[in-house]
Design brief:
With about 400 residues, the protein is α+β, with helices and mostly antiparallel strands. Helices cover about 15% and strands about 30% of the residues. It has eleven helices and 28 strands. The strands form seven sheets. Strands 5-4-1-26-23-28-21-20-19 form a nine-stranded antiparallel β-sheet.
């Protein structure tokens, strides 16, 4: 059986739904939060030089920007062919072959593929103050811009790590020249850039939308992060929890002739958004009810942007529901067990690196529109899953109330 035949057979057997293979990603910086359900012995599964595993990626058709030691497929999501073997193929291969049969005509026509991915982001310590490039700035180095959003699931945050607040942007009274002065001294000492910022304490069960060009230093909670298909950064904080970052982290996504041009480096910031005096009003994302009954409740948790959306679905104990969506999506189970379409679904207590799982799926547009039947087989425990969409879900709220 060739690759395309395998893709088609798996797609048909799943009735338009793929069961996914877990994708874990290491990072050299920071400390692992160890809330990814990964076996304690497996956080350095890719070797000490790669650093500990701190992320799990979902519905990804891109690779991680992760240094010269990264495997060519690092970050790509894989589809599991069968529980009886470890045969697999990438979601990207499935999108390339199935096209609109998988993700719908609208996304194929507009983006020629699946345009977003999501991840669990899991650090014990806070991350550096950094920004993701705008589409215009990223295009200058042959890449895509990266807006992203955050949601803090209660089920995966039994402890908060070292710092329970996230910095966003700069204080509205900040002088741009003050920022430039600190960045000019990147190699001379601690930039202390967060002194110029403002922090918001994390509220579990809520989230934020972060536009490209907005500087931010995420808290040390495990975060669910739907985002655009990109992995581009500019880091403006050079000392975090005693760890030192080189100036290359500041300028690695700048053209060669701009790496010493402070006006260009500063221009990666969307300054007006960074100093928005009503930042929380515009970018905080409390849950918004999508639909509910005695059997279930579903909330929008990422919305009011042009790039992606996400929902949290809770099915009550012992209930069976059929949930329809107007677009293809990926999903991850975070509590409970039961049935998801033709599949047994379960939230693992612990995974070994390289082990298959039954907690992650990708649902075709046709299957989503027809409705996925979900059964909670527990008498006591809710069944909870997070669903990530591209920009084309017709019911996603367009504004913040």
């Amino acid at each position: 059986m060739n690759k395309n035949e395998m893709i088609e057979k798996t797609f048909e057997e799943g009735k338009g739904i793929f069961r996914m293979f877990p994708t874990f990603v290491p990072r050299r910086n920071g400390k692992a939060g160890k809330r990814l359900k990964l076996h304690p012995d497996d956080y350095y599964a890719l070797g000490m030089k790669r650093g500990s595993i701190k992320e799990r990626w979902f519905a990804s058709t891109i690779t991680a920007t992760n240094g010269p030691l990264a495997a060519p497929d690092e970050g790509l999501s894989y589809v599991s062919v069968s529980a009886d073997s470890d045969e697999k193929f990438t979601l990207k291969e499935a999108v390339d072959y199935l096209g609109s049969a998988l993700i719908g005509e609208e996304l194929m026509a507009e983006y020629h593929g699946w345009p977003m991915y999501s991840k669990f982001f899991d650090y014990e310590n806070p991350l550096f103050h950094h920004l993701h490039l705008s589409f215009e700035a990223a295009a200058r180095v042959g890449k895509l811009g990266k807006p992203e959003s955050y949601y803090f699931p209660r089920q995966l945050n039994n402890y908060k790590g070292e710092f329970d607040a996230t910095y966003f942007g700069f204080d509205p009274d900040t002088d741009p020249e003050t920022v430039k002065e600190r960045l000019l001294k990147f190699n001379d000492g601690d930039t202390r850039i967060t002194e110029l910022s403002r922090a918001y304490r994390v509220e579990l069960g809520t989230g934020w939308y972060t536009p490209a060009g907005v500087i931010h230093a995420p808290a040390s909670y495990l975060t669910y992060e739907p985002q655009w298909n990109s992995d581009v950064n500019s880091v403006q904080e050079n000392v975090v929890s005693g760890e030192i970052y080189s100036r290359e982290a500041l300028v690695e996504e700048c053209p060669e002739d701009k790496k010493n041009d402070m006006d260009y480096i500063f221009g990666l910031l969307d300054w007006e958004k960074n100093i928005d005096p009503h930042y929380k009003k515009h970018y905080f994302r409390p849950p918004v009810l999508a639909s509910e009954s005695e059997q279930y409740v579903e909330n929008w948790i990422s919305y009011a942007n042009d790039y992606f959306g996400a929902k949290e679905l809770t099915v009550n104990p012992g209930q069976t529901v059929t949930i329809k969506d107007g677009a293809a999506y990926g999903c991850i189970f975070i509590q409970g067990h039961g049935r998801f379409g033709v599949f047994d679904a379960e939230t693992p207590a612990m995974l070994r690196f390289g082990q298959q799982s039954a907690d992650e799926y990708f649902v075709s547009e046709k299957a989503a529109k027809e409705g996925v039947t979900i059964t909670n087989q527990s008498k006591f425990d809710p069944l909870v899953l997070l669903k990530h969409f591209g920009p084309n879900h017709p019911d996603m709220p367009k504004t913040v109330s």
